[in-house]
Specification:
alpha/beta; 9-stranded mixed β-sheet; 10 helices; 23% strand; globular; Ribokinase-like; ATP binding; EC 2.7.1.4
């Protein structure tokens, strides 16, 4: 246990965007071809917040919504799922963000965003609920909140406040290229806060994007290592995940399931892992404990792909531990 660790036992505070995904009611069609769309709550940091709560952890969300029907619907979803919304604000002048998502035949996705500018981008430093942020055991965020001001400054201030209060910083870059001005800007923006994090979770595709190299190569992955990191986890889809710490590294296989939609799988994985870390930070040094936590996280990610949507598909802990037990 580090002497600087602060925060309330087990509290995970997630920061960033929550939006509505409009998903075609049939897979494998373009947005233009689609006749009808289903409304699905989305936004990676919010998905993580719900995953933490649904899996039995303590969860809070910090972010801004439009004072519109969609914004209130989303905050209602957070509350119904047991997420603390003391860090949530409504903007009377801006809309809640929307994204139209194409589900390709293989379950992968393409995005078209409506954020010009949306309420989540307009969160200012003075609007942050710092007392909530400072109570975090883990402060979790992505990179979308870094794209434009004033949200970028609010994001950096929230990270500083959490770190000074002794929280662990958790980062999932969640690269969404259409939202950045260019690929170069995305790489630079994502890397701009890289060395601040205690823990980073990244997908194999994001490793390829950031390094412009082979994500299966350990040397390539290790080019993303920074000295402040306690844990780097690379998710490899159905193959499972790889983990790297100062002292050990390895791979934990995934679970074979009938995949319908990959949306939110990484967020379910992450929610499970953050609960484990928030409850016992010794797993950064204890490979056996870390591997057990990653098995459960893999199971949560796998189960999440068996249903459409992110939040509806996030499992409960008993379902995940049952899959882990079956997989032995």
């Amino acid at each position: 246990m580090g002497e600087k660790e602060g925060g309330e036992a087990g509290l995970v505070v997630s920061f960033g965007e929550m939006l509505i995904d409009f998903v075609p009611d049939v897979a494998g069609v373009s947005l233009a071809e689609s006749r009808a769309f289903l409304k699905a709550p989305g936004g990676a940091p919010a998905n993580v917040a719900v995953a933490v709560a649904r899996l039995g952890g303590r969860s809070a969300f910090v972010g801004k919504f439009g004072d519109d029907e969609f914004g209130h619907m989303l905050v209602d979803i957070l509350e119904k799922n047991g997420v603390d919304v003391d860090g949530v604000l409504f903007d009377p002048h801006a809309r809640t963000a929307l994204a139209f998502v194409t589900l390709k035949r293989n379950g992968e996705r393409e995005f078209m965003f409506y954020r010009n500018p949306s309420a989540d981008m307009l969160l200012t430093e003075s609007e942050l609920n710092l007392s909530l942020i400072k109570r975090a055991k883990i402060f979790h965020y992505g990179s979308i909140s870094l794209i434009s001001e004033p949200c970028r400054s609010a994001h950096l201030a929230a990270m500083r406040a959490a770190k000074e209060a002794g929280a662990l910083l958790s980062y999932d870059p969640n690269a969404r290229l259409p939202l950045w001005p260019s690929e170069e800007a995305a790489r630079a923006g994502i890397k701009s806060i890289w060395t601040e994090a205690d823990f980073i979770k990244i997908s194999d595709e994001e490793v390829a994007f950031l390094t412009q190299d082979d994500p299966q190569s350990e040397e390539v992955v290790m080019s993303l290592w920074s000295d402040g990191l306690k844990l780097l986890v690379v998710t490899d889809g159905e193959k499972g995940c790889r983990y790297f710490t100062k002292d050990f590294k390895g791979q934990v296989p995934g679970y074979r399931v009938n995949t319908v939609d990959t949306t939110g799988a990484g967020d379910a994985f992450l929610g499970a892992l953050l609960i484990s870390i928030a409850n016992d930070t010794s797993l950064f040094q204890d490979e056996g404990k870390l591997r057990e936590a990653l098995k459960v996280a893999n199971a949560c990610g796998a189960i999440c792909t068996t249903r459409k949507g992110a939040i509806p598909a996030i499992p409960t802990m008993p379902a995940a531990t049952e899959l882990v037990a079956k997989g032995k």
